[in-house]
Structure formats: C-alpha cells, structure tokens
Design goal:
- This protein has helices at 12-26, 39-45, 50-65, 86-103; strands at 3-9, 30-36, 70-76, 108-114, 120-127.
- It is of the alpha/beta class.
- It has one domain (3-127): Beta-carbonic Anhydrase, Chain A, CATH 3.40.1050.10.
- The chain has a five-stranded mixed beta sheet with strand order 2-1-3-4-5.
- Helix 2 packs across helix 4 (86-103).
- The model has no long low-confidence stretch (mean pLDDT 97).
C-alpha cells in the first residue's frame, strides 16, 4: 500500500477531483485527506495558529505512520472558507507550500489549484 496526502478544503466539490489527480500523478493507492475551510489561507497567513498546528499534526500522522512522501495543498475557485480571488490565493498557495516544506523535511510538497470546472492543476512545488 502506498499513500499520498492532501491538505484540502472541506468543500466536497474538491475531494474527488483532487484525490483522482493525486492517485494518478503520484501513482499511489490511497490519499490521506486533511480538511479545513480554506486551509491555504490558514497556512499562509496564520502559520503559528492552533489550526495550522492541527493541520501539521494530521499531516505528520500520514507521513510518519503511512509513509506518505508527498503532500499536496489545495486552493480552489469559489472557496467559502477563503473567498479571496485567484491572484490572492495563488500567493497564499506559494506561501503555504513553502511553510509546509519547512515543517516537513524530506517530503515533496505540491501546490494545486482547482478551477471552476473542477479540474486540477499543479501550480508550484517544494521540498526541504
């Protein structure tokens, strides 16, 4: 069994396309999913918050216990938890990817965007 990890919005519209994309791109069997409302904003703008710590704690379960070698952070169109425009979310995504990479040495971190047609595109990546 092989695992990848997604830090995804709680918005159910993003779950299936992100999981399918990651399973194909990473060639893994399962995707552990950590959900919050607008996680990209939390990780970018509130990295010292209890919510960010909770997200990282759940990611570490996936990396430590399931052996996940890749974590994707997801931003998306029409996010109720982070109603910022795409340009703002792209900046947040970059900051979030860099923050999580610094917290998770040796783990590949991807930044994904889910558009208005629910298509997934990789925007950025990092590894520390």
């Amino acid at each position: 069994m092989s695992f990848g990890t997604a830090i995804n919005c709680m918005d159910g519209r993003t779950q299936l396309p992100v999981n399918a994309y990651l399973k194909e791109q990473l060639e893994v069997d399962y995707i552990d999913t950590v959900t919050e409302a607008g996680p990209v904003r939390i990780l970018a703008e509130e990295p010292q918050s209890a919510l960010a710590a909770s997200i990282l704690s759940r990611v570490r379960i996936s990396t430590d216990k399931h052996g996940s070698k890749c974590v994707a952070i997801v931003a998306h169109h029409d996010c109720a938890g982070n109603p910022a425009g795409k340009d703002v979310q792209m900046n947040q995504l970059d900051l979030a990817v860099r923050f999580v990479a610094a917290q998770c040495p040796g783990i590949r971190i991807l930044g994904l965007w889910v558009d208005e047609t629910w298509s997934v595109t990789q925007i950025c990546a990092a590894q520390n």
